[in-house]
Amino acid sequence: MPTFRDYDSRDQEACLGIFDSNVPEYFAANERAEYEKFLNNLPGAYLVVEDHGSIVACGGFARHKSEPGAALLCWGMVTRERHGTGLGRQLLAERLRRLAGDDSVDVIVANTSQLTEGFYSKRGFTTHRIFKDGIRPGLDSREMRLQLGPVPWNTWIGLGPL
User: Is the entire prediction scored with pTM above 0.85?
Assistant: First the structure.
């Protein structure tokens, strides 16, 4: 059973390995340096998902620097070998669960690509802006948003009762 815990600097190589497993389809190779810099100077919470002693997913969130009331999902990813197993959904749910306790957050922003746009759409996010080739040629950047409301957080993303 996967478990969640806070990132520790000793997890860096495992997280970079997860990143590498998703290049070039989901991330551009030149983003690796930006991700490594992110891991060395976390702007907010960052989680790892362990399963049978291995880190198989990671992702976090932080306050949006220029938009009061907004939180930004940061560098969420699942190792390539575990795509389609539900780990991404579980990771998103855990990040949203942790954000749900902060009454000052009313919108959650995810910057993603057209490859994962459907994943977020199924969970209530809507696309607000598209930047053609914003990640690399052929990989557009999508700004997606989830407006929080008065309903329980787990219904926002179609999870139902947990």
Answer: yes
